[in-house]
């Protein structure tokens, strides 16, 4: 950890991501020497009235917001917290992904975003495959929240079969969020998921999610 604080801004996809930043990521990042700010991506800027926030509908809108944020010289590093599943198909790198592992594909897209924005302060991060991936990593913790259910066993089986939480696939019926909804109708994305992830903690997430661990390692190298 460094003694001088630098500002890290995290542009997040929605409310659930913001909650996880507040409760899990921010305390860790502050300890690493960052002053953390965050914002939810703007989806609509009307001529009058408040802007709408949450969700990523197109690369053009996201690119404009990233560049708007980078106008601030106060930001040392700008990073993102968006799902790889459902990321806009018009985004750089999405249409020429390599036919290899999910790790290679997401890294290809992130590198393409970096190249397009062309600002050394920009460190894009896409969650493999979505925020609920981290809830899969916290399967045992979710099991404690839903004691008496077989939720933990179902999630752990999926993780074992896939080879890790980040490899639970991203099909429209089999993505982590779809599986959670099917396994547990009362599961709350904005409450239960963040609680379980916080209980698992940063080190638990890093141990199970290599792409997440690589992202934090890159941020740590910049403090």
Folded structure, characterized:
This protein is α/β, with parallel strands linked by helices and 223 residues long. It contains nine helices and seven strands; from the N terminus they run βαβββαβαββαααααα. Strands 1, 2, 5, 6 and 7 form a five-stranded parallel β-sheet that branches. The protein has a two-stranded antiparallel sheet with strand order 3-4. Strand 3 and strand 4 form a beta hairpin. The longest helix is centred in the N-terminal third of the chain and has 17 residues, at 15-31. Residues 45-53 have low confidence and may be disordered.
In a few lines, what is going on in this structure?
The chain is of the alpha/beta class and 223 residues long. The protein has helices at 15-31, 59-69, 102-117, 132-137, 139-145, 151-162, 176-183, 192-208, 210-220; strands spanning 6-12, 34-40, 42-44, 52-53, 77-83, 122-123, 126-127. Helix 1 (15-31) links the parallel strand 1 (6-12) and strand 2 (34-40).
Chain-wise SSE layout:
Blueprint: E1 6-12, H1 15-31, E2 34-40, E3 42-44, E4 52-53, H2 59-69, E5 77-83, H3 102-117, E6 122-123, E7 126-127, H4 132-137, H5 139-145, H6 151-162, H7 176-183, H8 192-208, H9 210-220
Parallel strand pairs: 1-2, 1-5, 5-6, 5-7
Antiparallel strand pairs: 3-4
Helix pairs in contact: 1-8, 5-6, 5-8, 8-9
């Amino acid at each position: 950890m460094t003694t001088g604080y630098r500002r890290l801004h995290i542009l997040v996809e929605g409310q659930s991501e913001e909650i996880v930043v507040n409760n899990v990521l921010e305390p860790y990042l502050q300890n690493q020497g960052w002053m953390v700010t965050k914002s939810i991506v703007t989806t609509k800027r009307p001529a009058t009235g408040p802007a709408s926030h949450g969700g990523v509908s197109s690369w053009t809108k996201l690119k404009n917001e990233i560049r708007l944020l980078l106008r601030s010289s106060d930001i040392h590093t700008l990073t993102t917290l968006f799902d790889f599943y459902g990321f806009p198909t018009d985004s750089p790198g999405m249409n020429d992904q390599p036919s290899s592992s999910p790790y290679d594909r997401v890294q290809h897209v992130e590198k393409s975003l970096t190249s397009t924005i062309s600002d050394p302060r920009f460190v894009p991060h896409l969650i493999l495959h979505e925020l609920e991936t981290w809830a899969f990593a916290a399967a045992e913790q979710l099991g404690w929240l839903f004691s008496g259910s077989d939720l933990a066993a179902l999630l752990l089986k999926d993780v074992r079969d896939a080879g890790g939480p980040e490899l639970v696939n991203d099909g429209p019926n089999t993505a982590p969020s779809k599986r959670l909804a099917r396994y547990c109708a009362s599961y709350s994305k904005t409450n239960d998921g963040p609680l379980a992830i916080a209980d698992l903690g940063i080190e638990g997430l890093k141990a199970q999610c290599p792409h997440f661990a690589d992202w934090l390692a890159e941020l740590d190298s910049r403090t």
